[in-house]
Amino acid sequence: MADQKLANPAAIGLGGFALTTMILQFHNLGWCGVGPIVSCGLIYGGLAQMIAGFLEQKTGNSFGFSAFTSYGAFWICLGVIFLLNHFNIYKAGTKDVGCFLLVWTFYTAIMWIGSMKANSALAWTFATLLAGFIFLDLAHFGFPAMTKVAAWDLIICACLAWYVMAHVILGDLGINVPVGKPWI
Fold first, then answer.
1. Residues 43/81, Cβ–Cβ less than 8 Å
2. Count of beta carbons in the 10 Å neighbourhood of residue 115
3. In whole numbers, what is the pLDDT of the chain averaged over residues?
4. Ramachandran area for residue 142 (φ above 0: left; ψ -120 to 50: alpha; else beta)
5. 1 pLDDT exceeds 60?
6. What is the number of other CB atoms lying within 10 angstroms of the CB of residue 117?
7. Residue 119 DSSP code
8. What pLDDT, on a 0 to 100 scale, did the predictor assign at position 2?
9. Rounded Cα distance, 132 and 24, in Å
10. CA distance 95 to 49
11. What is the pLDDT of residues 8-50, one digit of tens each?
């Protein structure tokens, strides 16, 4: 058993993050309602990504453990915010959501620094994620037009996360998907 190769949980973590990020941006661009966001946020972006994070912890990867578990929790929290609003249990206003996003911006800044030690593709993923959070912060604190800017930036972010996921999955099959050298 000790020499059994285990799957890399980053494949699911990155996939859950990318897909759920993408569907939220479709909503932010007015292409879909909140239903797909809630379901993806609770299940694939939330639960599956958190499970990937817990599996990363078992491999000793603190960065993956923190990223996937935390962003999985982010998606579950966002899904709960949508549900609370929908059922009029607690109405989170624009500034409430803005505060929620602002604290995630700080967390993402830390993760962006860490991603620079991994590879260029992951560093770009976190750079666009950080920019997207900053744009959303601005959108929620007085500049609503920034929501569309954030959406396009975060679509790029989701595509980058899928690219890193392809590196993980296809690499196991002997197909090289280059991710570039670390920035630092």
1. no
2. 26
3. 97
4. left
5. no
6. 12
7. -
8. 62
9. 12
10. 27
11. 999 999 999 999 999 999 999 999 999 999 999 999 999 999 9
**Other C-beta atoms within 10 Å of 151: how many?**
22
Surface-to-core class of residue 89, CB atoms within 10 Å of its CB (0-12 exposed, 13-18 middle, 19+ buried):
exposed
Q: What is the pLDDT of residues 39-92, one digit of tens each?
A: 999 999 999 999 999 999 999 999 999 999 999 999 999 999 999 999 999 999
For the record, the structure tokens of 73 come out as 């929790």
> 């994620």: which residue's tokens?
129
Domain boundaries, the chain: 10-172
pLDDT in tens, 112-133: 999 999 999 999 999 999 999 9
For residue 164 the two structure tokens come to: 């890193």
- State the pLDDT at residue 3: 76
| DSSP notation for 48-73 | IHHHHHHHHHHHT-HHHHHHHHHHHH
Dist CA 50 CA 11 (whole Å): 12
Q: What does the block give as tokens for 69?
A: 């578990």
Position 154 scores a pLDDT of 98
